[in-house]
Amino acid sequence: MDVEKLLRQVQEGTLTIEKAKEALRELPYSELGYAKLDNHRKIRQGFSEVIFCQGKTDEHLTGIYEHFYAQGENVLGTRATRAQYEIVKKKVPGVVYDEVSRILKIEQNITEKTGMIAVCTAGTADIPVAEEAAQTAEFFGSRVQRYYDVGVAGIHRLFAKIEDIRKANCCIAAAGMEGALASVLAGLVDIPVIAVPTSVGYGANFGGVSALLTMINSCANGISVVNIDNGYGAGYTATQINRLAVKGHE
Amino acid sequence: MDVEKLLRQVQEGTLTIEKAKEALRELPYSELGYAKLDNHRKIRQGFSEVIFCQGKTDEHLTGIYEHFYAQGENVLGTRATRAQYEIVKKKVPGVVYDEVSRILKIEQNITEKTGMIAVCTAGTADIPVAEEAAQTAEFFGSRVQRYYDVGVAGIHRLFAKIEDIRKANCCIAAAGMEGALASVLAGLVDIPVIAVPTSVGYGANFGGVSALLTMINSCANGISVVNIDNGYGAGYTATQINRLAVKGHE
Amino acid sequence: MDVEKLLRQVQEGTLTIEKAKEALRELPYSELGYAKLDNHRKIRQGFSEVIFCQGKTDEHLTGIYEHFYAQGENVLGTRATRAQYEIVKKKVPGVVYDEVSRILKIEQNITEKTGMIAVCTAGTADIPVAEEAAQTAEFFGSRVQRYYDVGVAGIHRLFAKIEDIRKANCCIAAAGMEGALASVLAGLVDIPVIAVPTSVGYGANFGGVSALLTMINSCANGISVVNIDNGYGAGYTATQINRLAVKGHE
Amino acid sequence: MDVEKLLRQVQEGTLTIEKAKEALRELPYSELGYAKLDNHRKIRQGFSEVIFCQGKTDEHLTGIYEHFYAQGENVLGTRATRAQYEIVKKKVPGVVYDEVSRILKIEQNITEKTGMIAVCTAGTADIPVAEEAAQTAEFFGSRVQRYYDVGVAGIHRLFAKIEDIRKANCCIAAAGMEGALASVLAGLVDIPVIAVPTSVGYGANFGGVSALLTMINSCANGISVVNIDNGYGAGYTATQINRLAVKGHE
Amino acid sequence: MDVEKLLRQVQEGTLTIEKAKEALRELPYSELGYAKLDNHRKIRQGFSEVIFCQGKTDEHLTGIYEHFYAQGENVLGTRATRAQYEIVKKKVPGVVYDEVSRILKIEQNITEKTGMIAVCTAGTADIPVAEEAAQTAEFFGSRVQRYYDVGVAGIHRLFAKIEDIRKANCCIAAAGMEGALASVLAGLVDIPVIAVPTSVGYGANFGGVSALLTMINSCANGISVVNIDNGYGAGYTATQINRLAVKGHE
Amino acid sequence: MDVEKLLRQVQEGTLTIEKAKEALRELPYSELGYAKLDNHRKIRQGFSEVIFCQGKTDEHLTGIYEHFYAQGENVLGTRATRAQYEIVKKKVPGVVYDEVSRILKIEQNITEKTGMIAVCTAGTADIPVAEEAAQTAEFFGSRVQRYYDVGVAGIHRLFAKIEDIRKANCCIAAAGMEGALASVLAGLVDIPVIAVPTSVGYGANFGGVSALLTMINSCANGISVVNIDNGYGAGYTATQINRLAVKGHE
Amino acid sequence: MDVEKLLRQVQEGTLTIEKAKEALRELPYSELGYAKLDNHRKIRQGFSEVIFCQGKTDEHLTGIYEHFYAQGENVLGTRATRAQYEIVKKKVPGVVYDEVSRILKIEQNITEKTGMIAVCTAGTADIPVAEEAAQTAEFFGSRVQRYYDVGVAGIHRLFAKIEDIRKANCCIAAAGMEGALASVLAGLVDIPVIAVPTSVGYGANFGGVSALLTMINSCANGISVVNIDNGYGAGYTATQINRLAVKGHE
Amino acid sequence: MDVEKLLRQVQEGTLTIEKAKEALRELPYSELGYAKLDNHRKIRQGFSEVIFCQGKTDEHLTGIYEHFYAQGENVLGTRATRAQYEIVKKKVPGVVYDEVSRILKIEQNITEKTGMIAVCTAGTADIPVAEEAAQTAEFFGSRVQRYYDVGVAGIHRLFAKIEDIRKANCCIAAAGMEGALASVLAGLVDIPVIAVPTSVGYGANFGGVSALLTMINSCANGISVVNIDNGYGAGYTATQINRLAVKGHE
Prior knowledge:
Chain A is α/β, with parallel strands linked by helices.
């Protein structure tokens, strides 16, 4: 490795200190830095590769899956179409597709699920986003419990489940339209609520902006918000929190 | 009166049919129409005069109150400042000012209160808007019950009162920030919910737009919405509904 | 039933007060609450089941209609496509579809129509939204009179009908583009005006936001607003008001 | 004058064609263009100098008024404060200030008023903007008739005046809140309607954007719109149209 | 006619004055008003029927054209598709379609063209909107001169034509992207400039809002604005102004 | 207590099961629910009382502080002015005010600080919001380390501290203007990043909306966002996460 | 040429000075101006013809390419579809199409590449916009180095290349989502950064507005911004700067 | 220095290669990186210290100026108030304040001005922003020529100066209202145009957003845009370009 070689040359006297300093000036930003950060993150996090499938060319996408499949690794692809699945499947038979969450994954090493994340939706139309969140969290090793269609228009449905939700380490609230679920939930639990506005609705919902504003302006404590329809982001953050609860931060 | 006079002249033969037709062509849009509509509305509605005080000059405002006071009528002024009150009071001692709702009124003929309107707020900061609504409704003859600070961050407070709210003919929900109260309320009652977004909040609440969008996009049934901070409008509409419930529409 | 059983055990001494209290702590939010609210609402409102068809899978949608059809109940589905109708019809022959309002319904028990709701539109393009409102109101038992194409660009058309509109208990104003109909209407009647902005228009109408803002900012009294194109919501609220006028609030 | 001098030198042979061409390359964009446009416009339009007073320093503003006063010209200043008036008055006693329109003017040569422009407002709060329009039009020689407080909340007031308004060459509609006046007016007259949204209102009126959108999206024919509160612009355009009607376009 | 009949009965003594007054109370808003306005407008304006084709059903559209064709009248349809043309043509062979402006018209009585309107565009992509404006103006009897692709990115093209444009009674400026053409034009002419923002552009043009804002905020005098892509509205207003210039307002 | 009493009466046979059921129908939503939720939350969370001081009247505010001071409890007030502090101090000498964070608190029982939260800002102008976050977290028992002025315009400042930040359980990123700090941070750490957009900036920052959008749209993993300038919300959520890391979720 | 001819006639006495002045009044804005500007720009800039292909008709587009091909000139067409390419190719075989950048060009005279522009992207999805920029710059004679997928979510990738980027004369940063790359880049280099927001992203990215706001509000020095997805504009400006660096401004 | 010391220890054998590698892993992001970047930028750029004065406390601000004054350095402070100037002046007599640009600076070493930047404004109200740009550029060593009040409402004023503007290396266009100056300018010159939208205007200008959109959407080549009122940013970028033109990029 370069740094080691450089230091050895200094030690052996074949490289002057002046020249070594000059070389080091560039080094940290290039190969050393690159390698270090990547290894560092993988070792500590155990987060496998994630691919945003939307807009990728078929060749590119298939290539990525083949590569990781060959290396025996797990891969999580989000926002994949059924058509993409059909194409990748031809080269990588082990790939699995979920129509609802639109997740396309290879799971060669099953991680044991730990802790607990509660994933809630206001309506049935929010389920695709919630499933992206739930399956992302599961892929990264979190145990997940689903509580779907517990929105505020029939709030007794939420109350019927609230004691169970309270037992989780973290809770995800996916809701479109007016997005009030996150507020009500945060008023009833004392765990972090990750709010995911969804684009479900019509008229003045502005593709989810209405729900986003509701969640950002919530008067209840303990809510933080991710992008509209960003189930993946919610699942990732929830997993980070769940891991902290399970084993603390190393 | 002009129409009567015209018809009499036709009857008496002092006005030709041609000339009468010509005169009538203009009439409906002018004095006839004017008088008719005004009398018509007063007789049926019993809605006294209402004044939007904000921005009126002192002379103008005092003049209006003096005029109606002299006529023995009731007047409801909204968005009045204390300074305006001080000035009007000098000329019209019977004027009454409420600091919270900013209503400046003369009430020379007390109307009996009938029916029931429930006025709810999410927080204490929404009370000024709610009071404008409540006092408007009372001024127009509605019985009003207040349920303040029953927002979704502590939803048990709302539940403690929900059976009483259900007994009203109509309910007003004033809420700022994320404005989720209207949704939760409409999910729990089966009377019309008039939602009033308030400008309470900060950051991305955009002066009440966040709450407005929440209410307009609500997935619960039976919500209709008035302008941000428009307590007066909510009180007026609620009174219309309350009257219908009390005596039907004539 | 659980609560009864619990109380009986307490009465019989087979359950200690301590254990009964613990059980009750969970109960209200779950089965008890659930049952109570649902029964409660159905008994008082007589509002049958409503389904938002848009985005539902064919299996899911057909299942719902089969279920309620078998139970001899009425069902109102909104935003249904003709394709959805074709599919549901195969399993539920009694289902009826209206191309204009896009309502897909089963009406096994005809409710008698009472009271009167006036449904107005500014132009002919607003009719689909108005029909969703009108047919929703009729489904829930309201008598409805339609006044279409009475917008402000030819205001005499509205004046020709205004006396009839005044006789209703409530009036719905559906308008796109600049949405001025609601303001003009509310200036001429003394019944509640439910304003429905429609997405009709182009350019800076922003899919109906222009009409929504017009209606929310109206200087006329007695207007409240529902979401863009939300004919269902307007019809529901209008029915609530119409019922109050017909028989008062129980 | 430069061009003449240049041509004379060419004629006299004291300037080569090459050098003349070079000089001409620059000329059109500079002095020639400058002089031509200015003289041209003044001769044809008779539009005197206009000054946007807002934000001008006292020295600058006073200087301008002194300059034109000394030249015996008329000057129209818009958006002037009373404080600015007090300062300018010290140096230019002939200056006249109108508190409502905030116009600060010198009128040394009274133009005869011709034609007719109708200036309408929805409410009394729109009068300052309407007066800026009316006084601008009068300053530039238009006869003006005012129709104030004829908004759609009491549409009979507008009908009482509509026949008079129809006799004008052009009509200005100033309205805030929901701004529906322009639509109703354009549906009743067949002259151009210049719509001026005003910032009057509150809540979701967004400082006049609501009225602007209403006017821009109007379904009525013959409306064109100027900026929020831009009474000056409306008065200027109305005068252009009024002149065309009075004497045609030269 | 009803009013005449009523007056005759009063004259003949077969209708009491009381009953006549009652009948008249309704009349102005209905048949009388209706007839008067329509006749009134047609006689004075000579504006034939206009149809917004977009979204009309084939049956409805064909019916309208057949009706007016049979009556020997002219009809102007805007925003028609080629498909609509093909369908209408089967029943009304005399119908004419223009692919660029998307105007579908019957012109059985050719009006003589008078006056002059200048129609300008910034680029070639703005031509469809400009043609809708130009052909609308021509249909209503205005002489039109086109000045296309004279936008500010190559301002010399505009200057080459400016003297001709100045000779018109009114000028239309259609521009998308940043829409600066209207400002530059209004700085160079002294006739009213009707600005039409177009939806041409991409990125932060927001479907024409960028050009709309540019035009509304213009610092040049004499600009008024219509809706995005509203060529029809611009052509209509320009014709109103052109007529005033040609013969004054009657 | 009511439930106990009720059950005893059932046990003793002095209350029928029917009447007990009826009484229980109301109970859960009122006193029982109220008490339960409150006690429940306090016991588990140890979160003391929090007060949003902004807009509270002096009497109201002083009353709250006196009440909790007398009870020997801790109180955290946010968005307090110095003037409010001066007034409260007269009655409650033990109250402490921090000019930067605008926190007004009583801390009678010092909680031991545990875990670690890293609070970062992009610039010095973001410090007030960051301090609200940091002091909120400390008040609720979190250990906090501050990393201020480490924004992306001089990214080496962030790198100099990154290893320390990585050791925290959770990290808060407060940034205005373009708000890029959150993205860069989340790319370098593997703990949850709570992003707080601040209203720092000018021009097209729209009072913090620019930073909010940056953070919501971040392509980096593990970011969730709270409202603009909502330091309190960030501190609260961070504390929830920190507690989970310290002791897991009970 | 006209001016020369005119001057000669003046010199020869066959044209009076009066008539010459009149002719000159029009000239500068027409043929003279036109020719001058065009020639002027071509000579100094060497910028060949550029065509915005989107929305052009096939006939129009083919005609343009045939014209310039026949003249032996280079042409750069942006936003061309493959279908357009197929059609143009039939008539102009020498035309070249690039699927990624969607550039359709004829390059008959290869310009030598000089200087250096660094084109960077945050992710792989930004490459189409970056390629439009890069290929535009190359077409106009700039040497270009690409640095793709160096976004802030993995900032070490950028550091690995930063020394090379610093050696360019100008740098382009294309990024969607939160667009933080431009800020980070400008903090690390001292050359002008042309920021191109891309529409890559979803949810609250508003088609690129989020990235646009991030870049416009950047706290880093030396950033200026072009329209969303406007790779062409960035490449053009970068070339202007690169030329200045290579040879200074003539 | 640390790196040197480290290398020496390796050379001397007092530090093992393992330990050196470990130390280096942290180094680049901390002291080394810090020093390097700062020195690096100062040496190459000669850009002195810049301070954003707005919102800084008096103590903080005075401290900064004292520090740099003592070091004999130049300092440029932007957005300073006169009050801030009065306070700083007491401690640092050499500080100079400009009322128009609001720049507060110390200039102990006068840099020779080179190259040429043209700074243009549309109106006189844009001058403060333009002066911030111009004085920033001068402070950093650029020669600047001002062209004020050359907006498109009187485009001949711009043409009179255009040949001079063309001689600059770069040009800044500051404009509010509709901001069309940048487009017109870019159509007439072939140097980079840095467009600065200003917040000058009213109504629908949205504090400068209108001008920003105009500039971003410009159809003219060679425009890039900075934030609203960001004269400093324009001056900085213009200086970068000017330097490149003067001496190329090192």
